[in-house]
Amino acid sequence: MAFDCNKARGVSLPDNHSSICTEGTIIQANPLSHYWKAKGWKSRDKLGNQKSSYGSIPRDSNTKKADEASGEATASTCGIRCFTDLPAALVCEVLARLDAKELGIVSCVSTLLHTLATDHQGWKKLYCERWGLPNLPATLNGPVVPGSPLDGKSWKTFFVEREFRSKSFMGKCNVDVLRGHNEDVRAVFLLASANLIFTGGRDSVVRMWNMEEGLLIDSSRPLGGTIRAIAADIRLLVTGGTNSYIQCWRAVDGNVHLFHISGNGTDQTSEFRLWGHEGPVTCLALDSLRIYSGSWDMTVRVWDRAHMECVQKLMHADWVWDLAPHGNTIASTAGRDAYVWDIRNSELTSLISNAHVGNVYSLARTHLANVLFTGGEDGAIRLFNVSDVSDDDEDSKPVATWVPHSGPVHSLAFEYPWLVSASSDGRIALIDSRKLLTPKKSSKGHFSVKSFDASAIEPPQRMLHGVGCDLFSIAIGADRIVCAGEDGAVRVWNFSEALEIERRAQALRSLRQENRMRRRKAQAEMNANGRRPDQCSIAMKKNQLKGDKSVT
User: Fold this and answer.
1) How many CB atoms within 10 Å of residue 168?
2) pLDDT at residue number 247
3) What residue segments make up the domains of the chain, in order of their start?
4) What predicted TM-score, i.e. pTM, was given to this entire model?
5) Nearest CA to 84 among 20, 179, 8, 133?
6) Which of helix, strand or coil describes residue 366?
7) Whole-angstrom Cα distance, residue 265 to residue 267?
8) Domain 174-500, what fold?
9) Could you tell me which residues the WD repeats occupy (predicted)?
10) Residues pairing with 438 in the sheet
11) Is the pLDDT of residue 99 over 80?
């Protein structure tokens, strides 16, 4: 619980001091913080390693007097040195233990702490725990250097923008309908970093769409079976279906849209197939090193992307419906059960038996350790904490359960904090997981499932209606939700307008806050000078009203 130690002791500090005491730890603004700014100290590494950084600052007589006054005030109030006098390694460790809200509070204390908190690498940890590395514009020139500021922005800027964007899914949206498939669409994939949407279905044709404009860019020749799974990144596109093989396209250098899937180009080496499954391929996923595929032949296969060959085969007890990799593990669903495998040694690390009544059709994971979402034939969506699953449990208990659908949940997709689901009842459910997932206060900083009463689970925050047909696949990202089903239409729910409305509202709030601060400052100055504020206050209010009208 935060408190002001000076108020508690009845002591007032000089105007150039401010302090915040939180459970015995003091964060105090130092009057010499302007020195650091003038010298260009932009990083926490510039602080002294063992001694106070201020000991090496050249001081004149006035500065020494200010130091003595500051030291006396500090000693007389809290009796300890200020937070920034700690060794640099300790300051870094303290900042690394803070969450986003706490880092924001620290940055408001002083100019020096604002610089330290803004440039701290904790923002990178907070970002990557939720969303992984940022999706920058597609490029084939090589990977981005890990840990560096991306696209000219700081990690704090990336975090704030992404957190702001995640709020748009509760706002106004438009629905665009993409038509081109002749029969039901079984798979959609959204590659937001390249502004692309991929779709496939019973007509055995893979189509590539422009996400912003909704225009068809390219389409493949008929592949001879129902397309049931699609996955892609900026270097590789893979599809699978009832013909049991994996169709692959490599990205083409110089192609604005990355892939040439029609097969009419001069480079025929960009298209190839992977054989190995003995039944329909139902699910696909990619990471930087591997391709993952699941099939009704009751196996999950792991393929080496460098040599394009199968390196692992994971056997299941039933048809495989879905899979989701995470680091060195891969989760999969088969029959009524959910599995978690360690791909380093092909061992089964967790088995969730009887996860649903009926088949477990869908699965979702993200950059959250040990957290697993499943969707089943019973219309339920369940959250499991894999670390709590015991091998002796015949029926593992979920942490949370939602039943937003009256039909099977065919597809799940997750982008922090939103879990979205598509069902045969023609509806889409949006579930906010912020209250369920909380970061651990540890050096690892992983997320864990928050303990709470299961009866207190909130229903989905939003339901999207009006589709009127079975939905088979869904994807989320970049202010979009993409879904498709049995009517052959691909629907894109566009929430970018909600973002623009929120930006305008935020600008208006900032202007009003600025005007209030100006009025208070002018009022304080007039009171100090003993002048009558009536006429000036009226003029200030008129100017403020004019400013508000100009913004709107």
Assistant:
1) 19
2) 96
3) 88-136+152-166, 174-500
4) 0.72
5) 20
6) coil
7) 6
8) Methylamine Dehydrogenase; Chain H (2.130.10)
9) 178-219, 274-313, 353-387
10) 448
11) no
